[in-house]
Structures
1.
Amino acid sequence: MAETLCPIEEKWSGAIASLLRPPPPLQVQEYFDQLLFDRNCSRIKVKQENDFGKGVYADGDFEEGELILKDPILVGMQHSSNKFDCLVCSFCFRFIGSIELQIGRKLYFQSIGVSANGGCDGETFSAVSKDCYDAGLSHMEEDSHLRTHENLENCASSSSSKDNIPVPKEVVDSLMNGGLVLPYSTEFPLPSAISCPGGCKEAFYCSKSCAEADWKLSHSLLCTGERSKSLSREALSKFIQHANGTNDIFLLAAKAICFTISRYRKLKEDYLKEQEKCPSANALDCSDLSLLLEAWKPISFGHKGRWWDCIALPDDVDPSDEASFRMEIRELANTSLQLLKAAIFDKECEPLFSLEIYGHIIGMFELNNLDLVVASLVEDYFLYIDDLPELIKKEAEIITRPILDALGDDYSVCCEGTAFFPLQSCMNHSCCPNAKAFKREKDIDGQATIIALRHIGKGEEVTISYIDEDLTYEERQASLVDYGFECKCSKCFEEQP
Ligand SMILES: C[S@@+](CC[C@H](N)C(=O)[O-])C[C@H]1O[C@@H](n2cnc3c(N)ncnc32)[C@H](O)[C@@H]1O
């Protein structure tokens, strides 16, 4: 595909090539050995043993059902449309607030025509009045009660979803402001929602430590609140609006860039402090580029490709239009990048603002395609009520049944998003996998959890299936186009025509 170079690409071609060069095998080994050590994963190894790059291998035996690894997120986000369904910590993605608040927000958004998985009846999250969104959370602020009520007056008058039986506005109001406590909801205690330290009303946390970690890692640059460290909050809002209106994967790419900038600034600060303490010591190579490469390291290990080259052609695009489709995708990424640049540009990290790097970051998410899922506590709550002994259940259902009817089929929507998990992203695919990503009841945050599907012996590669492995050979290969490869697992080898 013919591509014109942007000025940053011309100026920084060497630095960009260094950032995108696959790290040397020894560095890969050292990084993953350290990561596994930090995560207490003594029975697995990351090795580069077969034709398709890195893979995860058992370094001990695992039995069926045993936990193989838990993998915290490197960068992750809840889908914008899912924010209407679940209130979760913006850093670890566990449910926060209370069962009543979770349900109240959902009913409230339903009442203004915003529903699960569908955004706001054709509009996007950002298009919904900010005041309306605040209404779901503002009861947590000291002076909020009145505002909540006013917002509801203003916003909760639209019609509810067709099939659901709405509850009165006062019920929604009291669920959100703590006035109504549902039976047995104390069996499902949730951490209180902590506001963003930057003052935006979009990020909430389960703890101060999550708020601080997110702030340090990326949110300080992506916060739209008054203490934001972005260059322009207005430009940032435009970037976010564009991402919500087109593809929210741009928000994740922005997180990856901010994560790298924040790490770069910290490394530089430490380096300058060291220099001040000991000016005569001849430091190692600490040019801006070497610091940038170090800051980028955790992202450098991810399997990558340019987004517009690796994205599968959608079914509704005619193959003869492929070139113009890919050009359009590239243009879309460029528009997003220019908006992001206006909001958070950092001269010392300029190569990160090239389209080449932006395209590879988005491509990394596309090729690894790792879902972030946290099971719904609201679903657990209603299942608990359903399992109560008959008499007690009847009594509880006097209150819970109308609420369940109002929620309708959407009552059990999980927290859904996209994330990059450093270890899970090293796991290769097999159509007869020996492990799967599976959340147990106790796995209540966004970490990836990998469980053995059968006995796995020491030395065996641990594989998961990226697709439904029960499909036919042809269907499986077609599904794997989305991941950019033709499967060479033993099952495909046997079944290929
Ligand atoms: C999520 S990554 C897995 C880790 C990867 N091997 C690495 O080096 O980072 C997915 C990529 O690994 C390769 N891969 C994984 N499973 C494969 C398989 N069964 N057959 C062929 N290639 C596979 C493909 O290149 C795919 O795009």
2.
Amino acid sequence: MSHFAILLSNKVDKEELIHRLFSGKITGKLNVFNNVKGVLFSDLAIADFLEEEHKHHTIEITKAEKRQLNTFSSGERRKAYLEYCLAQNPDYIIFDNPLDHLDYQSRKDLLKRLTELSKTISIIELVNRKESFLPFIKNRWFIKDNNFKLTEVPKIIETSQKIFKADIPNSLLAFNNDYKSVVELNNVSVSYNDTVIVKDVNWSVSKGEFWQLIGPNGSGKSTILSLITGDNPKAYGQNIYIFGHKKGSGESIWDLKKRIGYFSTNLTELFKRNHTVEQMILSGFYDSIGLYQEASDLQKQKVNEWLRIIKMSEFKNFYFNRLNLGQQRLILIIRALVKQPPLLILDEPIEGLDQENSDLVIQLINTLINKTDITIIYVSHTIEKGLSPSNIYELIPTQNGSIGKLKS
Ligand SMILES: Nc1ncnc2c1ncn2[C@@H]1O[C@H](COP(=O)(O)OP(=O)(O)OP(=O)(O)O)[C@@H](O)[C@H]1O
């Protein structure tokens, strides 16, 4: 079996690389895959699959559960999608950052599974960070740009330490600051059908705090976030206070969304339309998926400032969906930030980013913490090097739903 693990810089057009592999026209060392059957295991492939299910109201992979794949947590989706890939009897599978979105135990399980699979199926692993290399693939390479040339993996990957010197641009909007507690969940429980997902969760987040929310796949992290952002009808009738206002006491969902900046890797799926990078960031002022109103000159100026900070000014007029996934994620993080909301929710912001861009995001978060009074909720399975959340809230699964606890 021939296996390849390939580190890609975020400058590489990953979709084009995959397209060349599948079209059987790849040159160089990868040409061993030219006349055999391959399938793709990636966030994008899963996103396309979700869209198809949504469009045709079908259930393909998860018939036994009688619900579409989009109702599964990101970790659960990946496990189900792997089975779907294998059922197609491929000669090789391209795994795009296969360990992303998985908790510690699921990573261990997947690693064991892939080690076993590698005896019968060839694997091409594409990663954006060196530490994501699958340990059993020793045939490791680096691709720097769209020449798609395999070169030796550099010992030191360039980081952004030298590029992030900028201050955060001034905020355009003035938000009402008259509250102490940003989020208060009192004995909150959520069930789907007869399954309890979270049980009696009590969590209080005060102004200016930096929280990390952790918990294994399916423990209810996204569910909790959706209660906070107003995207889950299960918030109805529960004892939830956001910015000091009791949920359901008159504030509209748009009033709430105005004050929350939200990034999730799942958002990338929603942005299929042809919008430019500038329009995409501007839409953060309106909390819309895409831009449907005329933005002001001041707002456009803010976008320029942010693009300068992340060194992406030259992409301003590019179509967003022509960017690679890493660049798209960075733009969506800036979209969440551009109005400088009092509450910023970042759901796995580092996934899919290369070393340079993940460093940039980490530095950005640290600058926000040090120089603004923004409250941040950060979701990730791992504690990122360079980030020091002031508090960690952990969801712990039990037979009767996840319970929440402050992690000491
Ligand atoms: N509409 C729904 N119907 C049934 N079950 C659901 C629905 N939405 C979510 N769930 C279930 O609720 C559980 C919690 O999902 P959630 O997405 O909140 O987990 P998570 O902690 O964010 O997981 P991950 O780390 O994998 O993203 C999962 O088991 C999921 O399948």
